[in-house]
Amino acid sequence: MNRLNNKTVLITGATSGIGKSCARYFASEGANLVLFARREHLLDEVKNELKKLTEGDIYTSPCDITNYKNVQQVVSALPEQLKKVDILVNNAGLAKGLEPIADGLPENWDVTIDTNVKGLLYVTKEIVKGMTERNSGHVINIGSTAGHDVYPNGGVYCATKYAVKAITQTLRIELVATSIRVTTIDPGLVETNFSNVRFNGDSERAKNVYKGITPLTPDDVADAVLYAATRPPHVSINEVILTPVNQANSNFVHKVKAD
Ligand code: NAP
Question: Is 251 part of a structural domain of the chain?
């Protein structure tokens, strides 16, 4: 289907996992894509793959969302025909470490808070300005079940996802008199590179997170994002929580033990 022909979609963190799946889903709907992430070689790979799916424009730019000046530069350097962003998917995010607060590393906290909270705010500020001027647009944040209930040793990551929920709800109030929609899509366990990043490349530990359960795939989340983005203009999908069937919330996960 080509439900998003001529629409421009900006996705942060499009080199991996959920962001990359969202890029594929939006490409297959004919949207023009603006893709940000830090790893330029992976952005090139994604662009080459997506070119086969769509005739829409695909524009990639390295961007570190934790650096406000960098965000301002890359947004102001967008090609003229892609400056009017219709849909912003604030997806880039991470967790670093899984320790009690007393044992946590402040450098891990800084990168987690800078990315998930400040980075999301920086991109939102730069893009929502134009949406407000045009009285049109849709902001879709990728939150988490970690923004609904906390889990042991996840204090800082959970705090950032509670913040995403607070920012989403505030933005929706601020924009209530406009035609701009604000959505949060909040997944539970999704198998991506997320746990590898969290455990600093310890792939065995990362794999264990998803052992004994069928986790969500990045496509499951992209499907929910696309659903929210393709409702009629008078409908706002405010919040979607999706988990694997055997996950009730952040803490209650039923895992089948291997014999
Ligand atoms: P992922 O596979 O590790 O992807 C994370 C993406 O974020 C990468 O493309 C990465 O690209 C980008 N990124 C990280 N820091 C960035 C920065 N400073 N500037 C720009 N881009 C940055 O993880 P994922 O699971 O798809 O995570 C996507 C979102 O889903 C995150 O917000 C995460 O909190 C949320 N989420 C994940 C799960 C899960 O179980 N996986 C559950 C709930 C919510 P570069 O490294 O190239 O910059």
Answer: no
**Number of domains the chain contains:** 1
DSSP assignment of the chain equals --TTTT-EEEEESTTSHHHHHHHHHHHTTT-EEEEEES-HHHHHHHHHHHHTT-SS-EEEEE--TT-HHHHHHHHHTS-GGG-S-SEEEE----------GGG--HHHHHHHHIIIIIIHHHHHHHHHHHHHHHT--EEEEE--GGGTS--TT-HHHHHHHHHHHHHHHHHHHHTTTSS-EEEEEEES-B-SSHHHHHTTT-HHHHHHHTTTS-PBPHHHHHHHHHHHHTS-TT----EEEE--TTB-SSS-B--PPP-
68 is catalytic: no
* Residue 72 belongs to some domain of the structure: yes
Per-residue pLDDT tens for 71-122?
999 999 999 999 999 999 999 999 999 999 999 999 999 999 999 999 999 9
Ligand 1 pocket (Cβ < 6 Å) reads 12-19, 36-39, 42, 63-66, 91-94, 115, 119, 142, 144, 187, 189-190, 192-194, 197, 218
In which domain, by residue range, is 191 found? 8-242
Q: What CATH number is given to the structural domain containing 106? A: 3.40.50.720
